[in-house]
Q: What sequence folds into this?
């Protein structure tokens, strides 16, 4: 039990006023340890006053439910942003929805930023993942820096080779700043170049795919500062490993510095397109595409964010697509619903189908798939809830 949590509980013992109570809750709303402890200790601190008892019990249920649905900060109850790679080109596009199923393109599905400006390695952005910044005041995004239409021009061995990722940040979802990391340049591009390296030769790297973000308030930097963005992705260096494996780095609060990669897990075959969420059972649940064993989209679990990821059970996966190939999964919850929606691209079809199916509150028992509606060129992407102000602002973009 850390000192911050103990301090918070002590304060809440005396702060029964609604205003003070809510202020303290908001200050700690994204600290998952606080919620778990608060749920366990509520009875210890409830007074005999019936009104206070009712208020605290209700608050416990409300805010523990919020904690269960939060991985990165979640805000807004008006609509949804689908931020995605466009299947019409190598760029990032937006679409808006009020119900999570029926969408409307922003700017006609055209680029919301110039990929050549922000993807400095190859000039193409793929696999966009967006979420709110750790303090809820801005936004961060990661993309795969890749342009498979430029294979010959770039001298790549394979259309699906690439060499790095892009980290982006914004205060308004419209104007973006970014930094690109070309992994071929080796450990010098990372903020901890003296740390042990996962590769002997970085110049032979050939894949850095589908990065995503998870804010980790407990990560400790060498100087003692706490909190960092876990950026996780698959990586493959043909000269030194046999297949794509999942790795992770940490980005600082400015979202401009990145640590050297560390291996997240290795199940003995290729794995790509991970999507991690912290659920109400206190465990981390990861959607993952297995390319070995029985291929498909599965859910793995761990008690820890950066280790302990065992293989998923073999009989619970996105099986209803038959032999059609699926990847790029992204989980989100509808407003007021504790179950999940899992979106993915069915890429072996012509034309391709971007699908949304249902899953239970533990991200299992996948069922009832339907095609996303209203999006031009949907592809691998992510979903974020929006406030009315954000929704209206994006809808006005031309």
A:
């Amino acid at each position: 039990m850390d000192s911050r949590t103990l301090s918070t509980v002590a304060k809440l013992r005396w702060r029964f006023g609604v205003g003070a109570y809510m202020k303290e809750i908001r200050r700690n709303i994204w600290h998952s340890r606080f919620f778990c402890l608060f749920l366990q200790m509520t009875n210890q601190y409830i007074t005999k006053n019936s009104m206070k008892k009712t208020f605290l019990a209700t608050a416990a249920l409300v805010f523990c439910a919020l904690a269960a649905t939060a991985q990165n900060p979640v805000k807004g109850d008006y609509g949804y942003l689908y931020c995605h790679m466009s299947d019409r080109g190598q760029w990032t596009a937006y679409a808006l929805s009020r119900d999570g199923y029926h969408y409307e393109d922003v700017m006609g599905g055209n680029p919301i930023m110039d990929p050549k400006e922000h993807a400095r390695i190859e000039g193409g952005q793929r696999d966009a993942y967006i979420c709110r910044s750790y303090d809820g005041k801005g936004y961060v995004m990661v993309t795969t820096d890749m342009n498979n239409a430029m294979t010959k021009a770039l001298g790549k061995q394979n259309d699906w080779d690439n060499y790095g990722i892009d980290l982006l940040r914004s205060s308004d979802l419209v104007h973006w700043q970014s930094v690109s990391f070309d992994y071929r340049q080796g450990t010098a591009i990372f903020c901890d170049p003296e740390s042990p390296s996962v590769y002997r030769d970085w110049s032979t790297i050939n894949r850095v795919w589908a990065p995503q973000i998870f804010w980790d308030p407990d990560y400790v930097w060498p100087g003692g500062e706490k909190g960092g963005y876990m950026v996780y992705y698959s990586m493959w260096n043909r000269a030194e490993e046999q297949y794509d494996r999942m790795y992770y780095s940490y980005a600082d609060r400015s979202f401009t510095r990145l640590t050297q990669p560390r291996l997240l897990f290795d199940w003995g075959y290729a794995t790509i397109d991970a999507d991690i969420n912290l659920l109400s059972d206190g465990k981390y649940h990861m959607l993952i595409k297995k390319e070995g064993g029985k291929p498909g989209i599965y859910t793995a679990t761990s008690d820890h964010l950066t280790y302990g990821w065992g293989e998923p059970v073999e009989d619970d996966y996105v099986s209803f697509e038959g032999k059609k190939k699926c990847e790029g999964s992204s989980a989100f919850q509808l407003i007021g619903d504790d179950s999940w929606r899992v979106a993915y691209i069915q890429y072996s079809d012509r034309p391709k189908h971007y699908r949304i199916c249902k899953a239970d509150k533990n991200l299992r028992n996948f069922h009832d798939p339907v095609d996303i509606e209203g999006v031009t060129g949907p592809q691998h992407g992510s979903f974020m809830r929006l406030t009315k102000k954000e929704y209206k602002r994006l809808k006005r973009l031309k």
Observations:
- Helices lie at 3-14, 18-27, 32-45, 50-69, 115-118, 151-154, 388-395.
- The two ends are 50 Å apart (CA to CA).
- The chain is about 20% helix and 35% strand.
- The first helix runs from residue 3 to 14.
